[in-house]
Amino acid sequence: MTTPGTVPAAPVPEGVTPALDVRNIVKRFGGVTALNHVSMTVLPGEVTALVGDNGAGKSTLVRCLSGVHQPDEGEILVDGKLQTFHDPSASRHAGIETVFQELALSDNLDVASNMFLGRELTHGPTRLFRLRHKEMETEAQTVLARYGIRMPSVRSTVRELSGGQRQGVAIARAVGWGSRIVLMDEPTAALGVRETGRILDIVRGLAERGLAVLLISHNMEQVHSVSDAVWILRGGNMVAGMRTADTTTSEIVHYITTGQGLT
Question: CA-CA distance, 207 to 177, in Å (whole number)?
């Protein structure tokens, strides 16, 4: 088991406040400890990868950060401020948006409507509202262009889109609301080579625009090509965190399988 404070990790640069600072998070389900004093940092303007085998605790940690689960112990700081997430809306209010593997898009609605789903722009009182479609389309086009996310049209229905384009809609919806931290759970799963490349370009572009991105992935080549830092979970324990440039794919895999680095 990992003892709190003993995980090898690259230091946070002097003068930099982590966008996301996770400290000694514990999450239990009955008698099972899914997360055991897990700590990690995600810096602004960087892609941070979170890796680990199935059952390592990655999804549980993401659900704690997105407000779906509440930790039993530990602290979550956003931009240096302590936060408590009783539900997903509290996480979003703090500036965290999550793109889950299940994209939660509505196939029968167009791109713009999906980007504003649940946050529609309206005219008039609540009971007699009219949607401001033109404004939503204009804003959707602006967000897509800002982050280099290509779509046939903001009026295209989601059912007409490819898997990569659907992922692009989900990402645009996440970043279009002023979020500073984006959590992405396996965004390239089930995508072809070309679409995977486009999504990774988008992920990298988010960081270049100052956002903090936490990328959950099983693909070590992708992790090494797109991330600035990598954290490794094993059996609910955070066994290592390091700058990606200071490690190798072989070492990351060794940490995942044994909990120890190469000697």
Answer: 16
How many Cβ atoms from other residues are within 10 Å of residue 215's Cβ? Answer: 28
3-state secondary structure of 1: coil
Classify 167 as helix, strand or coil.
Answer: helix
| Domain span including residue 10 | 1-95+182-263
Residue type for 213, please? Answer: V
C-alpha torsion 196→199→201→204, nearest 10: -120
Choice between 259 and 48, residue whose per-residue pLDDT is larger = 48
1 and 80 in a common domain? yes
Percent of the chain with pLDDT over 70: 90
Residues 160 and 190 grouped into a single domain: no
Residue 1 has pLDDT above 70, yes or no: no
Q: Are 200 and 124 found together in one domain? A: no
Strand arrangement, sheet containing 32-42: 32-42, 20-29, 73-78, 81-83
pLDDT 10s digits, 133-175: 788 888 889 889 988 888 999 999 999 998 889 888 988 888 8
Judgement on whether residues 205 and 109 belong to the same structural domain of the protein: no
Domain total of the chain:
2
142 and 253 in a common domain = no
- Residue 109: Cβ within 10 Å count: 15
Q: How far apart are CA 20 and CA 125, in angstroms?
A: 38
How many residues does this entry show for the chain? 263
Do 170 and 191 lie in one domain? The reply is no
